[in-house]
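Exercise 7. Predict the structure of CRAL-TRIO domain-containing protein from Oryza meyeriana var. granulata.
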Amino acid sequence: MSVSHAEDVEISPCDPNSEDDRRRRGMGSLRRKAIHALRKRGRRRRVDFRYPAAMSIEDVRDAEEERAVAAFRDRLAAHGLLPDKHDDYHMMLRFLKARKFDSEKAMQMWAEMLRWRKEFGADTILEEFEFDELDDVLRYYPQGYHGVDREGRPVYIERLGKVDPNKLMQITTVDRYIKYHVQEFERAFRERFPACTLAAKRHIDSTTTILDVHGVGLKNFSKTARELVHRMQKIDSDYYPETLHQMYVVNAGSGFKLIWNSVKGFLDPKTSSKIHVLGTNYQSRLLEVIDKSELPEFLGGSCACSEGGCLGSNKGPWNDHVILKLIHSMRSSSSMREIKPVSDSEERSGSSLRAEKLKGMISDISNAESESDVDEFSLSAVQRSTDYSFLTPVSEEVKGSDSSTFCSCEACDRKGLPDVTPASSQAIQQSSEMVPKRLTSPKHPSTIGWVNNLGTSSFS
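Solution. The predicted structure, encoded as tokens:
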């Protein structure tokens, strides 16, 4: 008898299209989805409201790290170790990471950092210290910031083979160079990292470093040079920890590689994983992480800055006039604060307030630049100033079913969103007018040291 209807067909127990098999596959799919959802719930997507609403700065955080930072913050506050200017989530997280989330050790490290900052004068060093000999210093210690990597981090370069310690010490002293070193760290946190954050639309507080060791020999490591390196390394690892993303040592000869292979065994695996020692065929590796237009010609890129060369140009979003005015306007309005999770209605209200605040900031900039309308200036100007098409797109995090919208806000307290009053708008405008057209000198690259924030003195 022929079968005329599909539902009359007998299904074998081994048939992969049987109902039981389909049910089993469905259960497996649901299980995978559940695991995926649990993993997603471990990371929360935050929108950083310290920056203009139009920029939509994303700050994806790990839920466990958030809990650790919250507990660490409470502990610091209870011991009177939390000044308002350092009440920052990412700063506390960096110190916790530096001590492998040992809260007691991290608190000791934090307390020592506060003591050092007060004694050294780090809080006012940008305004008070003048490194007039910088032009001459750069001839005997070529180094500086130049562009950003594909994820928007500032790129820092040193040509160690061209360092002449003896001539360097005829121009400056170790103490003055250390002050310059600290000054450039403060400049990075005040201007460079916020500017890169605006340009990349993601939180950035670390650098990609390139060390060119072509020609490095014993002449480069005199007693004075070793003292300088040791002092810089201690400052980096103790007071500005976890600010190195990746380090690429290029033009490394067989001798350097032999030394590195014997040294890296003493380093923490996390630290050594950040350092990549490459020979002379390094160009393709660098181009994987840095766009060709952002890399100097002497490192295999296409950039050939005319004025002062690439290492003297200080090329980067931190020199963008619009971005710098926004940064300084936000900083002048009030200290940065985080606020509690908000509801959808509060989020909409906060968006309106942020829009008003952004409009005020843009109005200041627009008035300083031209007589054009705020509406004509607004997004187009911000987008033009942050057009880095080679940057890796911001990865989206899908919110879990139980996640909320979180935010941090520079101009708000912990109980609500910023209150934009005429007085505060006037303060923003006054601050914007005080900002010079070029806030960062093109001759002020930073020296982070060839052992940038490795967290150990073994390498030096």
